[in-house]
Structure to design on (134 residues):
C-alpha cells in the first residue's frame, strides 16, 4: 500500500530554504535517476542523489542526517547529465550550509548575561534577536 505523505508548514519551509540557498527549482526533478546513475561516488552514499532530491522535495528533514551531502564532490556529473538541467551538487551544498548553521541558528536572549549585553553593540543584539530567535 502506498504511503501518504502530507506536507506541513515545516516541510514546506525546509524545501523553500533549500531551494533559496541552492538557487535550484528542486520540484522540477522528475526522479529519472540520471544523477544517481552517473555519480562516481554513489557507492559510498547512504542515499543516492535522486533520493536526496526526493526527500528534499517532500520536505523530509531527516535527509540532514545523511552522509551523502558530505560525500558529494561537486564534480557536476549530475548537472551535466540532468535532463531538467538541475544542479544536484548545489542542493548538496545548500544542505551542508543548513547543517553547519544548525549550531548558530538560535540565540536564546535569556542566556546573554548583563555584563555581555553591556559590552555588545546594541545593533548586534537587535540584529541577532530579529534573525536568530524562533
Amino acid at each position: 500500500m502506498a504511503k501518504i505523505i502530507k506536507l506541513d508548514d515545516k516541510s514546506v519551509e525546509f524545501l523553500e530554504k533549500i531551494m533559496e540557498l541552492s538557487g535550484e527549482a528542486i520540484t522540477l526533478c522528475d526522479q529519472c535517476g540520471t544523477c544517481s546513475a552517473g555519480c562516481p561516488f554513489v557507492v559510498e552514499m547512504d542515499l543516492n542523489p535522486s533520493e536526496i532530491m526526493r526527500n528534499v522535495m517532500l520536505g523530509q528533514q531527516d535527509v540532514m542526517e545523511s552522509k551523502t551531502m558530505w560525500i558529494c564532490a561537486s564534480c557536476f556529473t549530475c548537472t551535466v547529465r540532468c535532463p531538467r538541467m538541475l544542479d544536484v551538487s548545489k542542493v548538496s551544498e545548500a544542505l551542508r550550509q543548513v547543517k553547519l548553521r544548525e549550531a548558530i541558528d538560535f540565540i536564546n536572549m535569556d542566556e546573554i548575561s548583563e555584563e555581555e549585553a553591556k559590552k555588545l553593540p546594541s545593533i548586534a543584539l537587535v540584529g541577532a534577536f530579529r534573525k536568530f530567535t524562533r
Q: What stands out?
A: Residues 38 and 78 are 6 Å apart (CA to CA). Residues 9-104 form a domain with the Fumarate Reductase Iron-sulfur Protein; Chain B, domain 2 fold (CATH 1.10.1060.10). Residues 9-22 form the longest helix (14 residues).
